[in-house]
Amino acid sequence: MDRSQAAKELERLAKLISQHDYLYFTMAIPEISDIQYDALIKQNQELEAQFPDLRRLDSPSHRIGSPVSSQFDKVKHRKPMLSLDNVFNEKEFLEFQKKLRRFLKMPEDFPIPTVAEPKIDGLSASLHYQDGQFVLGATRGDGQAGENVTANLRTVRDIPLHLLGDSFPKSLEVRGEIYMTLEDFEELNKSRKQQNESDFANPRNAAAGSLRQLDSTITASRPLHFFAYYAQNLEGNLTKTHSELLEKLQTWGFTVNPYHKLCNEFGEMLAYYQEMQETREQLNYEIDGLVFKVNDQLLQERLGVVGRAPRHSIAFKFAAEQAETVVEDIILQVGRTGVITPVAVLRPVIVGGVTVSRASLHNEEEIRRKDIRINDTVIVQRAGDVIPQIVKALENKRLSTSQIYNFTDNCPCCNSKLHKTPGQIAKRCLNGFGCEDQAIQRLIHFVSRDALNIDGLGEKNIAKFYGLNLITSPVDIFTLEGRNQSSKESIENWEGWGKQSTQNLWDAINKARTIPLDRLIYAIGIPQIGQTTAKLLAKHYKTFEKFLENIISVNQNDAKVYKELTEIEGIGHGMARDIVDFFQQKHNLQMVEGLLQHVNVLPCEVSDNLPLSGKTIVFTGSLENISRSEAKSQAEKLGAKVASTVSAQTTFVVAGSNAGQKLKAAHSLNVTVIDEAKWQKIVKDSTAQS
Ligand code: IVH
Are 309 and 82 in contact (CB under 8 A)? Predict the structure, then answer.
């Protein structure tokens, strides 16, 4: 056989074997015998041995995995991999339904057909297909970028290496959930125990651990599965409704969870939720609730995204699993931001398959409210991925030895007086880097992957450097190399270090001297400011100087600047107060100013080529056809800034009926005023343009 014949034959085999994989693994209706199947595999193997460079990306030989040693590469997602908001009861679910209608400006009882799907307790993956071939697979990571685990995903039998049929888009991304069945999980743990290896806490951890193996032959030996629940291509939606999309996915050879159901009205959704709560017990994989997704994809687009979650979907979680145990002690922990959290030390008990030996009691008030005492018998619960909590103490089982817990006024670590912010329940230690527990956690956070990402400074090393007084604040990290050079006890002579590791550490630290603005804001550890909020702040203030200058002027009671801060979508008053308070503490400001001597902060470059970039819009009055929130979201999607007051900086005002003060202000400032119809035309024209 010559090269071109071999190439053709390999293509034929890849497609044919994919087809038989689907019939065997997904449909359980094999059309050929195992012997015939093995013969096809062998034929493929032999041809590949003869023409190694003709091995295809969708070749069945990838199913067995291949040993790799390097790290996983990062993959930036084309569109962020979002998460879901949760509701836990009927009332909250009804509120979600109402919110949909309010946003879409529909009457309260307007039907919005919605698809219910089990929420699989696994981990999400994104799969890329080019001309039908599976070419790239990634984990979710932080939602913006994940890890390239293509070789590992190729070993998952539910994932087609070549799409079935020929009516698929040229380029396609499919998303879904990787999971492990309960039996396979138990089997795996059993064999790990026999080999003296630690067992996995639950099937989800087992699936995650198996997928993130650098050696994909190990992944191949672990029975992973995949349910597809979403697909997109660059050109936009592939279908008009979510149900059609699920059907399409099946025709391409994916396994879609069989328990999805299109519900037309609220009662039907609730009934299905109840039905599935019972069905759950019989499933051989874990689900922790149902995901409800608005079926109409045009509505999905209109609803858009808020924070990290789409408005069109919600996870309606199942009730938690419970167990009874005893509170053996109550201890206090100091968190990264100084918050003091009481934690119940429990007699270990299994709840929903996981051993629970500690549960947060949140704060003093919670202990009083639930009247939980040391030696009490309590009910603990765990709901899916939610951390264990104490539901209540069983008063009828209370012993005479039970002791009421007295919360201290001083930090359990550094003994400084605890502080209570008015309006907040938690007590806080404000000693910052002066408190050992806090300092270590703040440093760990500072160097963590999503912050400065300094490899070689893991938790253990941070604790060690702290203990030796070598790193007690973030600034010390950047002066460590200099101090080390003049030290008699050079790090490279420490046990377990050596020249190379030390050099790697300097390299990692030096790399972190240049840092994007949002990462630095996240890294300095302002209470409540996670990655998402840090990004919002970076996007708004653009440079660290401007951010700092603004926040410090708030300290001097600049009401205008404070208002500007709270007007950033996603930043409420609580967060704004925490940001301001953070910089009010001298030691934090000093730390940040010290840091700026050592790091170069990259300004936040916002794409300013969106159709309405640089424009500031104010909405006023009541709009007829869309809600105010939707109008705002339309404007922001197109790059505009939405403000709540009219000023000379306002580009135009969109006025609905009954507009009052703002309309007046617009007229007196000579700002252009347009009506709703004109606004919709701008949206339509700009959307076509972008
Ligand atoms: S849709 C817009 N559907 O739940 C978010 N997610 O909490 C896209 N998950 O990261 C997810 N089953 O890992 C969707 N039927 C399902 C799901 C599901 C499990 C996971 C997924 C996601 C997480 C969000």
Answer: yes
CB of 315 closer than 6 A to ligand 1?
Answer: yes
The values of phi and psi at residue 548, to 5°, are -65, -45
Strand 340-351 to 321-334 pairing: antiparallel
Q: How many CB atoms lie within 10 A of CB 36?
A: 11
Domains and CATH numbers, the chain: 3-56 (1.10.287.610), 86-185+200-317 (3.30.470.30), 321-430 (2.40.50.140), 432-512 (1.10.150.20), 516-602 (1.10.150.20), 616-689 (3.40.50.10190)
What the block records as the tokens of 412 is 């359990």
Question: What pLDDT score was predicted for residue 292?
Answer: 98
**Quick check: is 15 catalytic?**
no
Ligand 1 atom nearest the C-alpha of 260 is 15
CA angle 548, 551, 554 (to 5 degrees): 150
Model confidence pLDDT, tens digit, residues 469-478: 999 999 999 9
Q: How far apart are CA 164 and CA 182, in angstroms?
A: 29
Centroid of ligand 1 to alpha carbon of 630 (angstroms): 24
pLDDT band at 308 (very low <50, low <70, confident <90, very high): confident
Shortest-distance Cα residue to atom 13 of ligand 1: 124
Catalytic annotation, pick one of 76, 98, 119, 464: 119
Q: Determine the pLDDT at residue 388.
A: 87
Ligand 1 pocket check for 316: Cβ under 6 Å: no
Give the per-residue pLDDT at 688: 79
Ligand 1 pocket: which of 88, 96, 120, 312 to mutate (most atoms <8 Å of CB)?
Answer: 120
Residue with the bigger pLDDT between 234 and 304: it is 304
Question: How many Å apart are CA 460 and CA 440, to the nearest integer?
Answer: 10
Tell me, in angstroms, the distance from the centre of ligand 1 to residue 124's CA: 7
Residues 6+ apart with CB under 8 A from 220: 63, 64, 65, 155
Distances (CA, A) of 545 to 550, 596, 604: 8, 10, 12
Question: For residues 406 and 376, what is the distance between their CA atoms, to the nearest angstrom?
Answer: 15
Whole-number Å distance between alpha carbons of 467 and 548: 31
Residue-wise DSSP of 375-409: T-EEEEEE-TTSPPEEEEE-GGG--TT-B-----S
pLDDT higher than 60, residue 382: yes
Section 572-578 average pLDDT: 88
What is the structure's pLDDT at 400?
93
How many CB atoms lie under 10 A from the CB of residue 322? 13
Distances (CA, A) of 78 to 138, 175, 233: 11, 12, 10
> Which atom of ligand 1 is nearest to 118's Cα?
15
The 10s digit of each residue's pLDDT in 368-380 is 999 999 999 999 9
Q: Which helix (H) or strand (E) holds 662?
A: helix 661-668
